[in-house]
Amino acid sequence: MPYALDRFRGIFPAALTMFDRENALDEDATAAHWEWLIGQRVDGLVIAGTSGEFIALENHERVRLFRLAQEVTRGRVPLIYGAGHYSTRLSIELCEQAARYGADGLIIILPYYQKPSKPAVIEHFRRIRRAVDLPLMLYNNPANSACVDLNPREVAALVEEDVVHMVKSTYETVVPVHDLHFLLGDRLAIFYGSFQAAFEALCAGGHGWISGVLNVVPQAARALYQACHEQHDARRGLAIWKRILPIVHLWTWQQIGPVSDLATYRSILNFWGLRGGYSRDPFFPLTPDQEGTLRGLLEQSGWMDPGSVLADIDPG
Q1: Catalytic pick among 101, 139, 171, 225
Q2: Which DSSP letter does residue 85 get?
Q3: Is there a contact between 94 and 63 (Cβ–Cβ < 8 Å)?
Q4: N or C: which end of the chain has fewer CB within 10 A?
Q5: Tens-digit pLDDT profile for residues 219-263
Q6: What does the alpha-carbon distance between residue 194 and residue 174 come to, in Å, rounded to a whole number?
Q7: What is the pLDDT of residues 36-79, one digit of tens each?
Q8: Residues 55, 135, 33, 222: is their CA dihedral positive or negative?
Q9: DSSP-assigned letters across all residues of 253-301
Q10: What 3-state class would DSSP assign to 247?
Q11: 197 or 143: whose pLDDT is higher?
Q12: pLDDT value at residue 316
């Protein structure tokens, strides 16, 4: 294994990209949000991932974000850049730019929409790896990419070939997480990548959590990771997870209506006096009525004052 993977542990928000009302990139608001996340003691950042709206970005805009992340973080946390594209050639070009602007790792989504065959998907990753000397994270997200998924044994084979070094396992189930840990242990940095079962995934061998929800629950998520991995206290971890669940349920239970999770996070940040910014259309902001519903749910769960959410949980 050519890379030290122990830097890739813990809570890595899929960091929001901020846009203005006219859908232009807002670099100042984006930088301020990333700085806030670092101040919340996250372990790293994923830039231009799904919650960073890579699918709505031109490639040159992704490169602008890579450069901005290098300027903002100044080496304080590891950076994983979203450099995947449907096209192998364009993925390689983005990877080369990511390397130029300080990437510590690269997250590469399954090639999307056109549904290439599994042998073609595997060759896609092999060719990217041959072109780039950085740790590669397989973004195993078949639901969003409309692509075949790679099962744990296929991922393990790519690890043996030195093609893949990390994985973001984006499924509701944690089965791939514990299977990968059984097969590979610490030879692969295993990140859970969904909303629903982060507590179980961290207990099942996951080395960390990557998700958009971490844009608004970074401190609680960090406490969850510490309980599961550093304190080996599943009881405390479960108590923390139950405090996070009201934020998860905003989207999984559609408590505000048929809205994007990103719009919800942006409104939450605005409620807290931070800069939530805008998504690119067609991810539209919450309506005033939806914001009223959200405010009531946050007040009910205690999340209008995020500093108090874990106050009564034993620090361990």
Answers
A1: 139
A2: -
A3: yes
A4: N
A5: 999 999 999 999 999 999 999 999 999 999 999 999 999 999 999
A6: 10
A7: 999 999 999 999 999 999 999 999 999 999 999 999 999 999 99
A8: positive
A9: TTSS-S--HHHHHHHHHHHTTS---BPPTTSPPPPHHHHHHHHHHHHHH
A10: helix
A11: 197
A12: 65
pLDDT over threshold 60, residue 21: yes
Angle, helices 234-252 vs 218-225, to 10°: value is 140
pLDDT tens by residue, 145-192? 889 999 999 999 999 999 999 999 999 899 999 999 999 999 999 999
DSSP β-bridge partners for residue 19: 25, 278
Minimal CA–CA distance to 50: which of 127, 116, 140? 140
> Which pLDDT band holds residue 1 (cuts at 50, 70, 90)?
low
Catalytic residue among 101, 168, 225, 265: 168
Whether residue 168 lies in the annotated active site: yes
Place of tokens 């590891």: 78
Mean pLDDT of all residues belonging to the chain? 96
Other C-beta atoms lying within 10 Å of the C-beta of residue 185? 10
DSSP helix/strand/coil, 311:
coil
Residue 219 class from Cβ within 10 Å (0-12 exposed, 13-18 middle, 19+ buried)?
middle
Q: Which amino acid is at 101?
A: Y
The pLDDT assigned to 143 comes to 85
265 is catalytic: no
Q: Alpha helices, DSSP H only, in the chain?
A: 27-39, 59-73, 88-100, 118-131, 142-145, 152-160, 175-184, 198-203, 218-225, 234-252, 261-271, 288-301
Element (H, E) at 82: strand 79-82
Q: How far is Cα 46 from Cα 8, in angstroms, rounded to an integer?
A: 11
Q: Which domains does the chain have, with CATH numbers?
A: 10-231 (3.20.20.70)
